[in-house]
Amino acid sequence: MKTSDLDYALPEELIAQVPVEPRDESRLLVLHRETGMLEHRAFRDIGTYLKAGDTLVANESRVIPARMFACKESSGGQVEVLLLRKLDDLRWRALVGGARTREGTRIRFLDGDEPSALIADVAETGERGERTLLFSEPVEGYLEALGHTPLPPYIHAPLRDPERYQTIYARTPGSAAAPTAGLHFTPDLLLSLRDAGTRLAYVTLHVGLDTFRPITESTVEGHQIHREWCRVDTPTVEQINRSKVMGRSIVAVGTTSVRVLETAARHGLLQVPETPEAATTESCPWRPLSPFEGFTDLYITPGFRFRIVDALITNFHLPRSSLLALVMAFAGEQFIRDAYAEAIRERYRFFSFGDAMLIL
Fold it and tell me: Could you tell me the CATH superfamily of domain 67-146?
């Protein structure tokens, strides 16, 4: 697939700069894959499309205040750090911005304009500005005091309430970016869905910065995404298996939830391989899901065979992004192009603080 097939023209004024209040007042474009029909609704109406026994699977990862400021011990030069992934108690993978922050550079983190007790050495350099930082002590104890919410680069308006870049069910700290499809849910909406018989289950995937990186290779398949840590536990697996046995739908809240579930499904297939007959059938056989914890580098592109996810709630994604490739894999390339064109005509709001799609 050519990367140019993931391109589209978006008027800059449609990039949402602030979130809608209340959360479920955002718009919802409903895509019916069987008929090709599109519907324009409000997100609060999403229960119209869910049945008793369906399971919503949401990513409960919490965004950490991963943006930090520092200065070089040797020269006092300014450095900006974005924590990406914890490697062990003292080492983190991070983006480090600053002139000549080479391996061996020592930086001291700032509390406002004042130096703090926290220092780190650049232990290893990588591609695209990434570094491995070796901290003097665990950084978690400093994040609330020294860290800032890391908003995507296309959001220029200040965020008055950092909690607005968290889902209401965010629990496990670890993400450098929010799983934004879940930002539309309110407590009242979730309660109403539960009362109507929809189940809610949670997975965890700590979102890295690769979410915002465009595919720069000429083909989609030539791109390599970074590994992200994820988990699907026993209670979630049991709920998903119950829904599947009942013939109900598994509705993934966001592309991160899709990747966790389909990673777990493939891990199970490694233990019990498919038969040649199943591999050649058009439909995807379902096998009971098993718990999984570990890293995933699952890259979903058109032609991918989904084994767990039946429906998807997702925001509108950046051009030339791996997330847009995933959505095209789920709904069909031309259908998504048509839906995005319709959303632009109807002045939907795009990206992290924007509106949503429900793909059935």
Answer: QueA-like (2.40.10.240)
pLDDT at 279: 41
Q: For residue 255, what is the enclosing H or E element?
A: helix 255-271
Cβ 217 vs Cβ 209: under 8 Å: no
| Residue 322: per-residue pLDDT | 95
* CATH number, domain 3-63+161-359: 3.40.1780.10
For the CA atoms of 165, 171, 176, 180, what is the dihedral angle to 10 degrees?
A: -40
pLDDT tens by residue, 80-116 = 999 988 999 999 999 998 777 889 999 999 999 999 9
| C-alpha to C-alpha distance for 99 and 107, rounded to whole angstroms | 12
Cα-Cα-Cα-Cα dihedral sign, residues 54, 166, 14, 210: negative
pLDDT at 11 over 90: yes
Domain ranges of the chain: 3-63+161-359, 67-146
pLDDT tens-place string over residues 298-310: 999 999 999 999 9
pTM comes to 0.91
Of 97, 83, 104, 54, whose CA–CA distance to 242 is shortest?
Answer: 54
Nearest CA-CA partner of 174 in 129, 140, 146, 123: 140
322-331 and 255-271 helices, crossing angle to 10° = 70
| Tokens, residue 102 | 């080479």
CB 57 within 8 A of CB 202: yes
Give CA–CA dist 357/291, Å, rounded.
28
Do the domains 3-63+161-359 and 67-146 sit in the same CATH topology, yes or no? no
Question: Tell me, what's the pLDDT at 30?
Answer: 98
